[in-house]
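User: I've been trying to design a sequence by hand for this structure and keep getting stuck. Would you show me what you'd pick, starting by listing the structure so we're on the same page?

Assistant: Good idea, let's start from the same input. This is the structure you sent:
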């Protein structure tokens, strides 16, 4: 589903990704672990098309389509979803407005018609219920005044409504308590653990992987994948540290 081949990328004139290759098949969840500054977030931003991150070599395709040739909104319409450590607050825009606009923009880009208000509300309510988000929070401005756990729950509801093909979640577990961690785990498992979807889970810690069992674990160091293995690799990293395992 996602095929990255020899990807090179730079930001602020500094080469960060230096020949990164990675293949994630449909139905799989891959974890990427690695030391600070390894380029994990740069990988997420580059795949998302964030301005300021320049591809200087290599390819990345999503379901066969050239991801790097697309504008960010086209990548989203192609089924890519990015989740981040610090969900953004948008004062003055309600969660429902935001989500409906995002979902309909994607539907239009795919040549589908807009959902009616009633159709959209049905989906939004169902997702909020599934992920334990208070229905009232759907009406509030996006993430404004939400606790860390509520922001995460909200992000999972966003993911459920958008229903992406491929999700890249960048340290979405950082700083979460156990309940919020469970929510994120449950969200990923219920929304994304499907034969026709896949996930790239970027994390510093093994603990999220207690809730979301990865099929493959990769170590990213100095801009490349230096090791790949099964779930046991995450445990080994936790025990031995990156320096030892990535050497
Ligand atoms: P990770 O997510 O693995 O901790 P990052 O992708 O955030 O790593 O960063 C990789 C490297 O790129 C680091 O050395 C970081 O300082 C540098 N970097 C990231 N973003 C910028 C930026 N906007 N300007 C300058 N350097 C950056
Ligand atoms: Mg970091
Ligand atoms: Mg990072």
């Amino acid at each position: 589903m996602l095929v990255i081949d020899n990807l090179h990328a730079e930001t602020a004139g500094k080469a960060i990704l230096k020949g990164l290759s990675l293949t994630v098949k449909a139905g799989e969840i891959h974890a990427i672990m690695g030391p600070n500054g390894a380029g994990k977030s740069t990988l997420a931003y580059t795949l998302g098309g964030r301005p300021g991150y320049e591809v200087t070599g290599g390819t990345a395709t999503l379901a066969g389509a050239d991801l790097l040739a697309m504008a960010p909104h086209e990548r989203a319409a192609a089924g890519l979803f990015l989740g981040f450590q610090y969900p953004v607050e948008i004062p003055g825009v309600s969660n429902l407005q935001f989500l409906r606009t995002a979902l309909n923009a994607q539907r239009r880009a795919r040549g589908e018609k807009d959902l009616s208000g009633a159709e959209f509300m049905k989906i939004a309510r169902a997702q909020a219920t599934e992920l334990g988000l208070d229905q009232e929070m759907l009406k509030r401005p996006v993430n404004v005044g939400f606790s860390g756990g509520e922001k995460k729950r909200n992000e999972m509801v966003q993911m459920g409504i958008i229903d992406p093909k491929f999700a890249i979640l960048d340290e979405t577990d950082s700083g979460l308590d156990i309940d919020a961690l469970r929510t994120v785990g449950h969200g990923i498992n219920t929304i994304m653990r499907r034969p026709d979807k896949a996930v790239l889970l970027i994390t510093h810690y093994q603990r999220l992987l207690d809730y979301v069992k990865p099929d493959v674990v990769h170590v990213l160091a100095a801009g490349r994948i230096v090791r790949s293995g099964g779930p046991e690799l995450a445990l080994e990293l936790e025990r031995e540290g990156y320096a030892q395992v990535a050497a």
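That's my pick for every position. To get oriented when you compare it with your attempt: Residues 41 and 65 are 22 Å apart (CA to CA). The two ends are 29 Å apart (CA to CA).
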